[in-house]
Structure formats: structure tokens, C-alpha cells
Amino acid sequence: MPAIKAKQLEIITAAGEILSESGFSGLTTKNLAARIGFSESALYRHFKNKETIVITMLTYLSEDMEYRFEACLMAEGPPEQQLKKLINNQFDFFKKNPHFLIAIFSDGLLEETPGINKAINDIMAVMKKYLIRIIKRGQDSGDFTSNLSVLEIVHMIMGSMRLHTLQWRMSGYAFDIKGKGNKLMGSLISLIKT
Questions:
Q1: Which residues contact 154 (CB under 8 A, 6 or more apart)?
Q2: Which of 89, 151, 183, 194 is most buried, taking the most CB atoms under 10 A from its CB?
């Protein structure tokens, strides 16, 4: 699991909530301090500035994904089963932590600073890395089609997941992201199976 102090996790969780509600402009040290019952000066004992808070949040998410996805790939089973497990794991994480969806959609975050851009790219790179491993393994074993490149399949999966989570967020989290997401991904997997 990512190494982060309990107070820092509390701060980045509250930051994710504010970002989800109000965007980057709504994330002020005053709003954040009020949300968690800190003084503004107490925040600065844990983080240098707002950018550092956001980068820490994104880095935490990236490291958490790495840990969760590696566990999915360590489990025995065919590539299709590993792919379903990884996708289900991600939907399950967001169902429990909808305030961290900001990292997927980057509303108001992208292009704020080079450090934030790099942290967002790191999150996408983790997802891409694990999907590439599973899809390549599936193509090598003959379970997945080789009519499409590994990257084409990965982009289809990532795009579908992103659209699904966007619809969930825009609905006010009104439907079961896991149930509906697993059905969607089952359809997508049936398209790439041989």
C-alpha cells in the first residue's frame, strides 16, 4: 500500500471531495481547513501548498492502483479472468471513493502545473501498463484477437471505462457502477475474444 500518514490521507481525501464539488478553483486552504477542522497553518505542516496537496493525492492514487493491479495479475487464471478482476477492482475502488474520480476526469486540473500534469499522466500510465500486460498475454495465448493491436484494445477499454465512470458521476452516482460496468466490460471482452 502507498506510504502516507493518516493526517495526509485525511487531507487529500477532503481535497478530492472539494475538487469533485467545486473544481480546482474551489480548493483553497481556507475551504480545506474548514472541511477537516484544521487551521490553515496546520495544513502547511503537512503540505507546502495547494499544488503539493493535489500532486500527493494523484501520487497516492497512482501508487494505490499499482498495488491493487499487481495483486490482480498475481492471481492465477486466464487473461480474461485477470482483465475482469482488474476492471472490477477499479470500479469497486471508485464506488467506495467517488471523490477520487477527479483524478480520472482531471476537471480543472490538467494544465494547472507541470507537476500536476505529470501526476495525471502517471495514473494513466499505470492503467495502461497493466492492461498491456494482460492483453499481450491474452493475444500470445490465443484468447484475445490479434486483429487489433494491443494498444488499440487498451485504448478501447480505457475509453469505455472513462465514459462509464463519467456517466455514473453525471447521474449523481445513481446507478451501480460495478454491476453496469461489469456488464459493459463483459460485452467489450466478448468483442476481443477469439
A1: 128, 131, 132, 135
A2: 89
Tell me, what amino acid is at 45?
Answer: R
Instruction: Give the position of cell 472513462.
Output: 162
Quickly name the fold that domain 54-192 has: Tetracycline Repressor; domain 2 (1.10.357)
Which residues, at least 6 apart from 110, have a Cβ–Cβ distance to it below 8 Å?
A: 116, 117, 120
* Residue whose entry in the numeric block shows the C-alpha cell 484477437: 145
Region for residue 27 given its phi and psi (left: phi exceeds 0; alpha: psi -120 to 50; beta: otherwise): beta
Q: Tens of pLDDT along 1-55?
A: 567 888 888 999 998 888 888 877 788 888 998 999 888 888 888 888 888 888 8
Cell reading at 2: 502507498
Question: What's the confidence (pLDDT) of residue 107?
Answer: 54
Q: CA-CA distance, 76 to 99, in Å (whole number)? A: 32
